[in-house]
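Before going further, learn to read the protein records used in this course. A complete example follows; check for yourself that the lines match position by position.
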Amino acid sequence: MKAVVIGEPSGASMDAIMAVFPRHKALVDAFKARGEVIGIGPFADRGNMAIFRTRSAAEEFAREDPFVLEGLVKSYVIRDWADTMLE
């Protein structure tokens, strides 16, 4: 079963987001290299979503993500997802 991380925007400015983005992208790239992240990106309101192959990968990512650690994501939820199209 896959897991989805859905982040709520904090209202941070784009300048604040872009200042942290290089460290966030490095983490994303590490998870991509391991094959753990399937899709990731922002919503129009600056919230975000990421799809992971496992819940443990989603939890690890959320614990390490600079966007979360530095308050650019106000809160997040991890939801298990029974994706049947990509199986």
User: Anything to note?
Assistant: Strands lie at 2-9, 37-42, 48-52, 73-81. The two ends are 9 Å apart (CA to CA).
